[in-house]
From TrEMBL:
Pfam families: Myb_DNA-binding (PF00249)
Alphabetical keyword list: Nucleus, Transcription, Transcription regulation
Protein name: HTH myb-type domain-containing protein
Keyword Transcription regulation: yes
InterPro entries linked: Homeodomain-like_sf, LUX/BOA-like, Myb_dom, Myb_dom_plants, SANT/Myb
Occurrences of domain HTH myb-type (ranges): 317-376
Lineage: superkingdom: Eukaryota
A GO molecular-function annotation: DNA binding
NCBIfam families on file: myb_SHAQKYF
DNA sequence: TGGGAAATAT
DNA sequence: GATATTTCCC
């Protein structure tokens, strides 16, 4: 066997031609397995922790009890299989467990599964190593394991999460509540904090799945004092406080006390931390405002560039420099928009919320225009393609589809989809479930949005986490599969026929099967993600591209 | 002021 | 030629 196609013909992932000796190969292989396990363990850990806190918090207190119940009932089935049984999950779901929670749980189990599988491969590998069967000379000829050396594929959870699409802080205001919305930060435990450290919400005790979270209305006391831009309705000019000094401390929570216009609702508090950023100022067109001082601070990095064009005169002529919407700016913009809801977003408000020095409502206006157009475009496109996601049938048990993507298609009809999201867990789950398994009663959506503002956000956050995890899982599994494939190749050269070899082979095929599924999952997943991205961040503005004329 | 669309700049 | 922004109009 060896004679033939030696090294190179060996398919698979040979990424670097290395000439490691076999021992090295083995080591690598072994290491790879180890790291797979570690990765999986890491995932498990995180998930578990997460679930733990949740339940500790009472959010899903009833779950454990329930679960143990169910599991005993289903003792017959094998633990693992049981978890893969979508009926089981449906059942749980009907008991009111939020989808995000169930999904977390499922993934946790998947992780365990991966660990288990990795573990057995490792064992096999160990056997293999100890086995005399492996002839050193034989081994020396093939070095197909080098590729694992540089596979630090598995990213850690955190970075992934960070790169995940941030859920728009949907700002649907709870119609009847006066929760204020603020930029948040996902914390490790179950409390969410605003950027300034103010706790926004946390999982609460309420058992009802519909209101698991508790939002902390800000310390209202504080806001009144806030005064920077004060009631935002008033600020008319763009000259915000140049007194940058204060920014950092700026209370991000400036609540606008109440709404201005539309009576009603909003307490649109704050936008993001409003540090007054720096931007370059542009000299405006002829009508320059206020004199000259446009501070032009170009903050490193952050803000953008007003591309200066006519370098010549500046003050006078209508030199307006073109504002480039950097990702940072756009990000703020999105936050601001989402804080109020696209439908209520108007330049002035956004401008206020963005709190960027030097930005004018005109800038915002046009950007908003573009934004809306993009949303419409995306929505349209989406409708067209509707119905593509559910492919991979086999994955019923992996409900990672997202959430706000297909949920409430209807509501969106009114143009700005993503922001419309105002649902509760249950709804999300129903929707996602529906797409995979049809039927399942539609729960009434619109019902209560009360206090779900924060909850919705939380759900989104959790869903995001799940997405990240799925990603990790897929990657991890993929890696394991890769590993097994190479093992398979190696096997034939090991002329041995022990049980472990057989077992290994079995594992191998198993993994290959899994891999297919996973790929499918991943594909779907990515697709959804793309869609989501489209809806949510349409395209980043000029950003990077540009150059060239 | 805000929305929308034409005009420009990149 | 396609986009991103700015202007112009209502």
């Amino acid at each position: 066997m060896e004679s033939n196609t030696s090294g190179e013909s060996l398919p698979i992932c040979i990424r670097n031609s290395c000439d490691n000796s076999n021992t090295e190969d083995e080591t690598l292989l072994s290491k790879s397995v180890d790291s797979n396990i570690a990765d999986a363990a890491f995932l498990e850990d995180n998930l578990e922790k997460n679930l733990c806190t949740n339940s500790k918090n009472g959010r899903f207190a009833e779950f454990s009890a329930f679960q143990s119940d169910v599991s005993t009932v289903r003792e017959d089935k094998q633990g693992e299989q049981m978890t893969m049984d979508s009926e089981y999950w449906k059942e749980l779901q009907q008991f009111g467990f939020p989808s995000s929670f169930l999904a977390d749980t499922q993934y946790l189990q998947l992780c365990r599964h991966v660990i288990a599988e990795s573990g057995s491969i490792q064992n096999t590998l160990e056997n293999l190593e100890s086995s005399e069967k492996i002839d050193n000379t034989e081994k020396s000829e093939r070095s197909q394991f080098p590729f694992f050396s540089d596979l630090h594929l598995i990213p850690t959870l955190r970075p992934l999460r960070e790169s995940a699409i941030l859920p728009p802080p949907s700002a649907q205001r709870p119609s009847s509540q006066s929760l204020e919305y603020v930029d948040y930060e996902f914390s490790k435990n179950n409390t969410f904090f605003a950027n300034d450290g103010h706790p926004l919400w946390e999982y609460s005790e309420s058992e009802s799945s519909s209101t698991p979270l508790k939002a902390f209305p800000f310390a209202t006391s504080s806001h009144s004092s806030v005064k920077d831009n004060e009631t935002f309705p008033g600020f008319g000019n763009e000259d915000k406080q140049f007194t940058t000094g204060s920014l950092e401390e700026k209370r991000r929570h400036r609540s606008l006390s109440v709404n201005d216009r539309t009576s009603a609702e909003q307490l649109t508090p704050v936008g993001p931390r409003i540090p007054v950023e720096d931007i370059l100022l542009q000299s405006h067109r002829k009508s320059d405002h206020i004199g000259s001082n446009f501070t032009q601070r170009i903050d490193d990095g952050l803000y953008n560039h007003y591309t200066e064009k006519s370098s010549s005169v500046d003050g006078c002529k209508a030199i307006k420099k073109r504002l480039v919407w950097t990702p940072e700016l756009h990000d703020r913009f999105l936050k601001a928009v989402n804080a109020v809801g696209v439908n209520n977003a108007v330049p002035k408000t956004i401008l206020y919320l963005m709190n960027v020095e030097g930005l004018t409502s005109e800038h915002v206006k046009s950007h908003l225009q573009k934004y809306r157009n993009n949303l419409k475009k995306a929505a349209t496109k989406r409708q067209r393609e509707a119905g593509q996601f559910h492919s991979s049938a086999s994955l019923n048990e992996v409900p990672f589809q997202n959430l706000y993507c297909n949920s409430r298609e209807n509501a969106l009809s009114e143009r700005y989809p993503q922001v419309e999201v105002s649902t509760d867990d249950r709804v999300l789950y129903d929707n996602s479930l529906r797409s995979y398994t049809d039927q399942i009663p539609d729960s009434t959506v619109s019902g209560d949005e009360t206090g779900s503002n924060a909850m919705v956000d939380n759900v989104m956050e959790l869903d995001l986490q799940i997405q990240s995890i799925v990603h990790l899982l897929v990657t991890a599994r993929h890696r394991v599969a890769e590993l097994s494939m190479s093992l398979e190749q190696w096997l034939p050269h090991c002329s041995s026929s022990n049980d472990w070899v057989r077992a290994l082979k079995e594992h191998t095929s198993l993994f290959q099967q899994n891999e297919m599924q996973l790929l499918q999952i991943q594909r779907d997943f990515e697709k959804q993600q793309r869609e989501l991205k489209n809806l949510e961040k349409w395209s980043l503005p000029g950003v990077v591209e540009q150059g060239n004329s």
